[in-house]
Structure formats: structure tokens, C-alpha cells
Amino acid sequence: MHERRDRYIAFSVSPPVDRSRLLAALRTAGTVLRLVQYDGARGLVGCAHTAKDDTIAFLNGLAIGPSRVRTTGTSGTIRKARQKYLARRRGRSAPP
Predict the structure, then answer these.
(1) What is the C-alpha separation between 62 and 7, in angstroms, rounded?
(2) Consecutive H or E run containing 46
(3) Residue 35, pLDDT score
(4) Please, which pLDDT band fits residue 96 given cuts at 50, 70 and 90?
(5) What is the pTM of this model?
(6) pLDDT tens digits, residue range 33-92?
(7) Which CATH number fits domain 6-86: 3.30.70.1130, 3.30.70.3250, 3.30.360.10, 3.40.190.10?
């Protein structure tokens, strides 16, 4: 029995689309994709590690009406993917 090793792919959609339209587009993929998080413009999709490259190619070629999807990074955990690719960037503050 093989261990399941998921990958989480961060992406952005420009201009933003609603969740239902994104889900409908993700259902057209040749593999099972799980929408883990989506805020209207950025999100996170989960897939099997063996489907990572195909999923990235699918997402980068995906158009939803006038909107385009672009991947921004990949991680092995949801936590790291959120930290690296979905966290709001804050400017560094001066030391106290």
C-alpha cells in the first residue's frame, strides 16, 4: 500500500470570479481537484502528488470567461502553502 502524499497548489484569478464558477471549471480537470480555500481572487487546490504537474498545467491554461488562472506556488502542506503564498504581505517594521 502506498502512502498518500497530497500537494497544495496556490493560484490567483484575474479578474476575480465567484466560487461557483471556479468550482464548475475545476470539475473539467481530468483528475480530482479539491478546492481547499478561495477568497474570490486567490486560492488553494489540493491534488495527489502524482498529479501535481498535470494540475499546474491545467490551472495555468484555465480561462473562466475573461478571467485567467495563474499558479503561484506548490507545497506539501496546507499550512506552508497558506504562509508562503496566501498570507497578506506586511512591510517590515522598525525594531523597537
Answers:
(1) 19
(2) strand 42-48
(3) 97
(4) very low
(5) 0.86
(6) 999 999 999 999 999 999 999 999 999 999 999 999 999 999 999 999 999 999 876 554
(7) 3.30.70.3250
Helices (H) and strands (E) counted in the chain, each on its own, are: 3, 5
CB atoms within 10 A of CB 58: 22
Label residue 37 exposed, middle or buried (CB < 10 Å: 0-12, 13-18, 19+).
Answer: middle
Residue given cell 480537470 in the structure block = 29
| DSSP track, 55-84 | HHHHHHT-EETTEEEEEEEEESSHHHHIII
By C-alpha distance, which of 28, 12, 23 is closest to 71?
A: 12
